Input
Amino acid sequence: MNLIPGAHSASQGLRAEQVRLEVISQNIANARTTKTADGGPYQRQAVRFKAALGDAMSAQAAAGKNPPTLEIVRDPKAAVRVYQPGHPDADKEGFVAYPAINVHEEMADLISANRSYEANIAVMRNGRALAQQALSIGKR
Output
C-alpha cells in the first residue's frame, strides 16, 4: 500500500531535475574551455526528457521496470570562432574555437530546473502531510 500518493513520480522528478542541474552546471563551468581530451572545444550538453506516459505504460507491461525518462545529448551547434592570434589554442588563421554556450540561457535553464526541483519537493511534502492526517484519523 502506498501511503504517500505521488511520491514515486515526485522522486523520479527530483532525480531528473538533479541530473539537469548537474548538466547545466557543467555547461556553465566549461563555457570557455577551448581544449578537451577529444582535442576540440567543450561541446554543450542538454537533457532531453522522454514522454512519461508511454514509458509508464510500457513499464507496467514490463513487470514493473522503470525505463529511464531522460537522456543526455550533445548540442549539435558548431563552435564559435573568435579571432585571437596570441591564444595558445589558435589555429593557423588565428581563430580560437569556443563552445557555443550562452551563459545567460544556461542561467535561465538553471532557474527553471531549480523551480521544478522545488515543485517536486512540494509534492513530497504535501503527500507526507496527507499521509500523516490519514494516520491520525485512524488513531481516533
Q: What stands out?
A: Strands lie at 45-49, 70-74, 80-83, 95-98. The chain has a mean pLDDT of 84. Residues 7-139 form one domain.
